[in-house]
Amino acid sequence: MLCFLVLMTQGSFSQIDSLKNLLKPNLPDTEKIKVYEELSFYHIRLNMKAAESYRDSAALLAKKVNINKFTAYAEIAEASILSSKSLFRKAIQHYFKSNNLLDKSEPILQGANYSDAAYCYYSLGIKDSFFFYSIKAIKLFEKNKREDKMIRTYGNMAYIHTTLGKFEEAKKYFKISNDLAHKLNDKRSLSKNLQNQGVMYEYMSMPDSALYFYQEALKLKQEIGDSLGLATSYSGIATVFLLKKQFPQFLKNINLSIAIAQKMKNIGYEANGYFYKGEAYYTIEKIDSCIYYMNKSLKLNKETGDISRESDCYMYISDCYDIKKDYKQALEYHKLYKTYYDSLFKQESVEQLENLKIGFETEKKEEENKLLQTENKLSTATIKQQKIVTYFIIGGLLIVSLLAYFIFRGLKTQRKANAIISKQKEEVDKQKGIIEEHQKETIDSINYAKKIQYALLANDDLLKNNLPNHFVLFNPKDIVSGDFYWATEHNNKFYLAICDSTGHGVPGAFMSLLNMGFLSEAIKEKNIEEPHEIFNYVRLRLINSISSEQQKDGMDGILLCIDRTTNQITYSAANNEPILISNNQVIELPKNKMPVGKGEKTESFTLHQVNASKGDVLYLYTDGYADQFGGPKGKKFKYKQLNDLLLNSCHEDLNKQKEILLSTFTNWKGNLEQVDDVLIIGIKV
């Protein structure tokens, strides 16, 4: 099945053959190191065993030569192999070590290291560092007029703009990269760009265009013999067939991708293949198969350190166990998902601090080594002169001088070592202080963000003036919340929104602020009065602003409108339905099963009217209360149990109802972690 992996055109071997021809017996060791490094790089996508062998040869010679510049080549070979195996954190450290060994006379190599480190940062989901080091690389390449090196960096910039949904920017960078690649006949970069253009069209929900580019990339990779690249092309083709719901074609292509990854020993690509298989089985409701492949992917992702993908695996496994009604397992994996998901928010600043620290300490150590070498050279020269003088004066003084020298040098070396240790300790303490200060600043910033968010929530006076009999139970999972309740008055109408934004914590809070802003814009600026039209407007604003990349960012919620002239109550509901308790019966009012944001449905939201009598109680809530795990068996609370609780307590005073809800939630949760924000509002008509 994989016999094509060994078929390569003669032109594909030309670069490797040219390099091998340079390895003559009389070739200096320093030149051999460079050749070994390049041979290792070219073999990474063809034969990993050969790549590792050339890397080892480069490392052995570099150790023998013991010159910084050539040790840097060996570090590049090691970093390239680690990156190809998706061990990105380790690869970054070796790219930095290489740059710290290079001086300013090697700007192109330094730029290439920055570019490759940027790719690793992107693969780890640290996008700010990707941009920072990509720009550093581009500046070095432009300054030195190296178009051949700019091709890949601009291609990487195009790809990350694709993932951010900035497709026009992505197309601009693809054009720059492709024009340079055509000009220099760089087929490897062209094949990579074709692959990533397929990704772009997949993000743009244009599967046929995506399939075309994936297949064109596949053809070119077969032509140039890019064995590892074939794995990405088959994976891309597979995802398109999954979108088209052509499951046999999906399996055929994803299995090809996994087989190539295994042959090339690329655990990152293999992990992605298992993840896509698990995702596919989830869509066709084969839950046990989904769990099996997600666990296989998870095991490999732990080796690569891909926290983002680990988080996704935990999420799917948790959902699978929930479907199987194994709530204990569902809760355990849900907690792991939340832990890994939340760690992604903190990862970037910590990674940057650690890598800056590595770079600083490496540079500092090199400076100290250079200084020590210089001093040793000066000391040796002094001793030689001293020996000559002493020979002419008296032999006995030679012994005394040598003893004095060695004692002095020992003391000096000891003092210098003590000074270095002291400086290193000071630096560690300093970095520790920086990290602690950074953490304190982060918490302070989040607490300040809480003040801002709470200031934008519906204030008590506004609610009391329009809803004399009501209660609000608001219990965020974190300091700030993705759930929010918001109210305003306009044209003698009162509006109340109870919403659950995508995410919780800081990401959820950002979304809630954006959602509140769009609600206010619709009512106050656009003078839209009907709740369903307000939701339609907010959905459009969200899609145009942030959700064009299919992330489905937005909110679920209910928007209530009370006309103070007619006392008529109307509403629109997205995924969450209002609950009306009338005549001791729970009435689940209608809702639209779609979010305010990008989803599978695009029709208009529906306007509904609440027909309530005096004394009825209307409840508006998000999903956090019902989704909480707890109780004697660790199950979810569920909506039915929540509605029964509301029915049993609806005759109580509203403040008493709030106390009952809060104490029941606390008792149910017990020692388990709160899984989501909780928001319930009760209104007595």
Descriptive notes:
It is elongated, with a radius of gyration of 32 Å. The longest helix is centred in the middle third of the chain and has 67 residues, at about 325-395. The strands form three sheets. Strands 2, 3, 4, 5, 8 and 9 form a six-stranded antiparallel β-sheet that branches. A five-stranded antiparallel β-sheet has the order 1-13-10-6-7, covered by helices on one side. Strands 11-12 form a two-stranded antiparallel sheet. The protein is an alpha+beta fold and about 675 residues long. Among the domains are: about 265-350, Tetratricopeptide repeat domain (Serine Threonine Protein Phosphatase 5, Tetratricopeptide repeat, Alpha Horseshoe), CATH 1.25.40.10; about 375-450; about 460-685, Phosphatase 2c, domain 1 (4-Layer Sandwich), CATH 3.60.40.10. The protein has 23 helices and 13 strands. Residues about 1-15, about 345-385 and about 385-395 have low confidence and may be disordered.
